[in-house]
Amino acid sequence: MEHLAKCRVAVFGIGGVGGYVVEALARSGVGALDVIDNDKVSITNINRQIIATTKTVGKYKVDVAEERIRDIFPDCEVRKYKTFYLPETQDQFDFTEYDYVVDAIDTVTGKLTIIENAKKAGVPVISSMGAGNKLNPAAFEVADIYETSVCPLAKVMRHECKKRGIDSLKVVYSKEAPIKPLESAKSEFLESETTKRAIPGSTAFVPSVAGLIMAGEVINDLCSDYREQAHI
């Protein structure tokens, strides 16, 4: 616990997956957390995001996350960034400050930039693959990116990581084939938007399990590293 209290972990993306990562890390006693997200809580988040309630709709996710962290662990040092992590915003962050990095964002470009910067800094990183349009929380597993299959996002990430010479990456992913949402299930909130991308659906129990698995890996790795250093 003393070791965890001295650790700083960055969580990129405070949504369905990342919100549960933050929750579990705070409850586990991690002493410093950086939370990075530029989104505000939407009414459509309530079914799956731990920070989303009728009282938090319209608030910045990082503001809500900070309040929850302080309610759980008042001594935790929280730094919040209202920004999307992309190549254009990467200079705001010094990865050498972190003991661990969690990638829970959706954009491939952003994910790759996070992973590359963590690798350059010699900091362990774990990345979430696709959790949308899936129904089986028991199908998630931890693997190296090059051992993944079925998941469409993991396929893209395998290709892009190989191109960039990234030889390994710990990920949480599911072999469950994503279902295709009905066209008629499009939200009325999105009818005015022009998009060619399929609108993903989600549940209360799939992203949460992915996030808790990721948090468990972070805590396990941080403690394993401590035990090795202390020769325990």
Write a brief structural summary.
This protein has 232 residues and is of the alpha/beta class. It is 33% helix and 14% strand.
Question: Could you explain the architecture of this structure?
Answer:
There is one protein chain. This protein is α/β, with parallel strands linked by helices and 232 residues long. It has a single domain, classed as Rossmann fold (3-Layer(aba) Sandwich). It contains six helices and seven strands, in the order αβαβαββαββαβα. The protein has helices at residues 2-5, 18-27, 61-72, 108-121, 152-163, 206-229; strands at residues 8-12, 32-36, 77-81, 100-103, 125-128, 140-144, 170-174. The chain has a seven-stranded mixed beta sheet, sandwiched between helices. Helix 2 (18-27) crosses helix 6. It starts with a helix and ends with a helix. The model has no long low-confidence stretch (mean pLDDT 92).
Strand order of the largest sheet: 3-2-1-4-5-7-6
Instruction: Average the pLDDT over all residues and give the rounded result.
Output: 92
Q: How many discrete domains? A: 1
Question: Which CATH C-level class is it?
Answer: Alpha Beta
Order of helices and strands: HEHEHEEHEEHEH
The CATH architecture assignment turns out to be: 3-Layer(aba) Sandwich
Share of helix, binned: 25-40%
- Strands, total number: 7
- State the shape: globular
> CATH homologous superfamily, by name?
NAD(P)-binding Rossmann-like Domain
Percentage of residues in DSSP E strands: 5-15%
